[in-house]
Amino acid sequence: QFHLSYSDKESLEREPRGESQQEVLRRAAKDLPVYTRTMSGAIRYCDRCHLVKPDRCHHCSVCDKCILKMDHHCPWVNNCVGFSNYKFFLLFLAYSLLYCVFIAATDLQYFIKFWTNGLPDTQAKFHIMFLFFAAAMFSVSLSSLFGYHCWLVSKNKSTLEVFRAPIFRHRTDKNGFSLGFSKNLRQVFGDEKKYWLLPVFSSLGDGCSFPTCLVNQDPEQASTPGGLNSTSKNENHLFPAKPLRDSQSHLLTDTPSWSETSAKAEKGKVGMSNPALTMENET
C-alpha cells in the first residue's frame, strides 16, 4: 500500500528534484493515513525501499529496510525492536529482570557466608561470588532499561521519538501520539489482560496507522468542504480525515473520531497545506 507504483517510481526517477517529484509524492500519499513530515515539511519517503514511510516508520541502516514503529536496533537480540516485537521485547526485559533478581536473592545467603568464611574452602567460592555479582549487576541495568521502556509505553513514544519528536503538518509535537495512560498501554499490550504477560502478539493495529490526539473531530456535526470540522477544539492542528484500522479506531471512542472525506477535497487540501514539499532522505 505504501510502496510506489511502477509508473510513479519511474516518474520519480526520471524527473529532476523539484515540483514534479513533489507532485508524484503528493499523489502517492493522497489516500494514505500519513500525517508526519520531515524537518523541512516534506512527505517522508525512503529512496532505498521506494515507499512513502508510514507514521513512526524509520529505515534501519543495519537491517537495511524500513521498520514499522521503529524503537531502536538492539544488538543483544540482533534485530530491530519495532511494532511487531515491541511487546516481546518488554516481556524479555521483565522475564530477565525477574530471573536475575531471583538468582541474586537465592545466592545472597551463600555470598554472605563467603565473606564470613562460613563456606568450605573449595572452588565453589569463586562461582558463588561471580554468580552474585553478575546477577546483581544485570538486575541494576535491566531495571533501569525496563523502567525506561515502561515510561515510553505510558507516554506512547519510541526511543527515536524521544530524541527527535515527530513532526506533524503544522508543528512538532512530542506527545502527538499519546492518548492517555490506559489507551497507550492497550495499544502495546492489547485489550485482553489475560494475554499481557504471555509471549503472544496482542498489540492493536497493523503498525501503519496510529490514532493521534491531534486529530479531533466530532462526527455529530457537519464537516467543512475540506473534510475538516469547523468546530474543532484546536484549529491549529487540523488534519484531513482518513480512516483508521478497525482494531485501533475504538481507542478514540471517548474522543471525537475520524470521518471520511472525498478524494477531490483531499487533493485540494494536500495541495494547499504543503506547497514546499520536497524529498528528504531519513535514516
From TrEMBL:
Location(s) in or outside the cell: Membrane
Name under which the protein is recorded: Palmitoyltransferase
Pfam families: DHHC
Enzyme class, broadest EC rank: transferase
Catalytic activity as recorded in UniProt: L-cysteinyl-[protein] + hexadecanoyl-CoA = S-hexadecanoyl-L-cysteinyl-[protein] + CoA
Gene that encodes the chain: Zdhhc2
Domain notes: The DHHC domain is required for palmitoyltransferase activity.
Classification of source organism: Eukaryota, Metazoa, Chordata, Craniata, Vertebrata
Annotated transmembrane regions: 88-106, 126-148
Similarity comment: Belongs to the DHHC palmitoyltransferase family.
Organism of derivation: Psophia crepitans
Record keyword Kinase present: no
InterPro entries: Palmitoyltrfase_DHHC, PFA4/ZDH16/20/ERF2-like
Keyword Transmembrane: yes
Keywords, alphabetical: Acyltransferase, Membrane, Transferase, Transmembrane, Transmembrane helix
Ranges of biased composition (kind: Polar residues): 221-233, 249-262
Annotated stretches, region: Disordered: 1-20, 221-283
Molecular-function GO terms, alphabetical: protein-cysteine S-palmitoyltransferase activity
Domain of life: Eukaryota
EC number: 2.3.1.225
Positions of the Palmitoyltransferase DHHC domain: 43-162
Entry membrane topology: Multi-pass membrane protein
GO annotations of cellular component type: membrane
